[in-house]
Amino acid sequence: MLEVNALQILSYDGTFEGFLTCVFHVYERRLTHVDIQPSHVAIDSLFDAREEIITDFEKSKRVWTGLKSKTSSNGRLRLMYAFLSEQAGIERHLLEFIRYVFDSKSIVDDDYSHEAVLKVTQVAKSVGREKHRMEAFVRFRLTKDDLYFATIEPDFNVLPLIQKHFKSRYADQKWLIYDLKRKYGIHYDLKNVEMVTMELPADFDPVNTSEDFFAEEELKFQLLWQNYFKSTNIESRKNMKLHVRHVPKRYWKYLSEKR
Amino acid sequence: MSFERIKEKLEILADAAKYDVSCASSGSTRKNTTKGLGNSTGMGICHSYTEDGRCVSLLKILLTNYCIFDCAYCVTRKSNDIKRAAFQVQEVVDLTINFYRRNYIEGLFLSSGIFKSPDYTMERLVAVAKKLRLEENFHGYIHLKSIPGCSDELMREAGLYADRLSVNIEIPTETGLKLLAPDKKREDFIKPMTKVKNEIIQYKSEKKLIKSTPKYAPAGQSSQMIIGASGESDQQIMWTANYLYDKFDLRRVYYSGYIPISYDDRLPHIGTAVPMLRENRLYQTDWLMRFYGFKVNEIVNNEHPNLDLDVDPKLGWALRNLQLFPVDVNTADKLMLARVPGLGMKSVHKILHARRYRRLNWEHLKRLGVALNRAKYFLVCESRDFERRDLSAIQLKSLILQNSTSKYQPLLSPQLSLF
Questions:
Q1: Whether B287 and B345 share a structural domain
Q2: Which of A237, B160, B339, B364 could form a disulfide with B360 if both were Cys (CB 3.0 to 4.6 A apart)?
Q3: One domain, residues B184 and B220
């Protein structure tokens, strides 16, 4: 009996393709009592059977192609956004969503009365919000090497989502946005955007605009911006509750006007 | 440029511009096809928020606060004894570009006091926009103020570089305008608005025939009214707004609660509270008109010239029209759903999608995020549980108010608070 009830855990490398490969295995082997977890999270337990799934681009592509015929482009986008939330247990909801979609004859990814669809939609929405926030809250600082440099610590892994926005907006300047939490960044060299990892100097303080790294006029523009921010406030309408709701305190660290 | 001098100017001229509430940076697309700076996708971004909770999306400044007019409600009026300053065209361009490159802003909102003459002022505003577009290859958002009384030719040129043009009519009634701004005439506001509207129509029709026709003010026009400065009623405000939307195809009308700035006897004195709740109700009405299919006279009319402060205008309307309810969530059409208190357009949209798959009950509605504390009295759904009592409007209103909290509670409470 124990064997029948054992939960089958498929672990993957944390990439979207890895996750889709797991979905492929679920279908190929007709697994029902199954969970998918990233390997850095999955722990061996006495009762669950754990298996490492190697990412296979062929297989993941087949699942994605299958999804294409069963979902709207918006539905697939929500799936991807929800995945990037990196929330614990999100794979279970994604799998349920995918199962519901594959089991149905017509396209059902906007059936918000279905639990998994609603959950995925809600998580995707938070990720979308975080993406939008990062498009707003990134603050570039000009370095001595003519590079516009920004550090962020977003709640979700949104760098892949904001890349296009920054590429088309700042097409004529070199820039680098670095996610200090996930330890990688995206760099634009006037032609392409590439993922980069880097060793920050030991004495580098991401909050401080030190003259060793940043251009001479950089601090002056920050000062102008801070002053502008102050002058545009209307004291008699003060509403800190609303202010903090729009600019939650966890983002203040990298906002030059809030320091 | 001298940072000290710029800093001082920026402080004075941003402070003077902050009473203009428009901050929209949306509604215009300018693709960055030339590897220049900036790319507008039609979706605005609020880059920060001030401590009063308003968004900072554009660098909002006056070119100068020198002014030949003496409008009682305005801080930069001629007779006011304040520090004056003026930017040079190049200074505004440099500030805009440097702020934009650091991702502080979506673009520029440039207004101005009127110095020498309307044309002289407008010429300089246009010069800034032209420089940004042609010399800096800038595709961000530009909002220019149309200076009342300037020539048609300048208005035409302004629209070629700006995304949005706006004229603030400020005082909703003609008599109020005569009292508070004796130098200004209604026609001076109407003229540039009419010009811009006609140009937009003309450029759009030409664009259909010749694809290379340039854009003309793609984010349209907006305007602003000051609330509570001239004793006007909500009906007068909303009917004026409706007229503006109708006649000039305005994208937005903004309502700005009057912030007392002088001891002039014609106006509320310094220390009077800003009518923020009233402002909020006016915006709600504006939304009902633009997105929910309401006609203005359904909400404010001769019998109800003012909006209720304790309930939102849609609930107010529903309480006057109880014969139309309850509405069946599973069969009602979109327009009727939109009229149910507690249902916003997003909920309506979700309901329309979800009910294709199954009949909805209270649990579904709750999970979709419907404000059931209000909506439950006006709806029936797949459940035998619904409001069966024949409640009067007054009973219903007090029931709803008991079960909800408002952030405006302190303002509404009849009790005087001492601390």
A1: no
A2: B364
A3: yes
Pair A22, A113 in one domain: yes
Q: Are residues B292 and B318 located together in one domain of the fold?
A: no
Domain termination residue (choose one: B299, B332, B357): B299
**B54 and B188 share one domain:** yes
Residue B308 resides in a domain? no
Altogether, the residues listed in chain A come to a count of 259
Contact check, Cβ <8 Å, A239/B354: no
Q: Where are the beta strands (DSSP E) in B114-193?
A: 141-145, 164-166
Distance from CA of B263 to the nearest CA of A (A): 16
Tell me the residue type at A257: E
> Which H or E run contains B58?
strand B58-62
Using the CB atoms, write b or e for B208-219: b if 16+ within 10 Å: eeeeeeebbbbb
The ipTM value here is 0.90
Cβ pair A172:B98 closer than 8 A: no
Same domain, A65 and A149: no
Of B11, B39, B259, the CB nearest to A234: B259
Interface touch B14/A132, C-beta < 8 Å: no
The minimal CB distance from B52 to the residues A113, A238, A258 is found for A238
The answer to whether B208 faces chain A, any CB pair under 8 Å, is no
d(CA B217, CA B229): 31
Nearest neighbour of B50 by CB, restricted to A118, A140, A233: A233
Considering the domain architecture, whether residues B131 and B193 belong to the same structural domain is answered as yes
Interface residue B346 vs chain A (CB under 8 A) = no
Distance of CA B193 to the CA centre of its chain: 16
Using the 8-state DSSP alphabet, how is residue A75 labeled? H
Q: Which domain holds residue B326?
A: 313-412
- Count Cβ atoms below 10 Å from residue B275 Cβ, excluding itself: 21
Domain boundary among B253, B273, B299: B299
B137: closest CA of chain A, how far (Å): 10
What is the total count of domains within chain A?
2
The per-residue pLDDT string of chain B (419 residues; one tens digit each, 9 = 90 and over) reads 688 999 999 999 999 999 888 888 888 888 888 889 999 888 889 999 999 999 999 999 999 999 999 999 999 999 999 999 999 999 999 999 999 999 999 999 999 999 889 999 999 999 999 999 999 999 999 999 999 889 999 999 999 999 999 999 889 998 888 889 888 888 888 899 999 999 999 999 999 998 888 899 999 999 999 999 988 999 999 999 999 999 999 999 999 999 888 888 889 888 888 898 999 999 999 999 999 999 999 999 999 999 999 999 999 999 999 999 999 999 999 999 999 999 999 999 999 998 998 899 999 999 888 999 999 999 999 988 888 888 899 999 999 988 877 766 666 655 444 44
Query: Domain end: A109, A128, A147, which one?
Result: A128
Task: Write out the residue range of the structural domain in which residue A159 sits.
Answer: 138-258
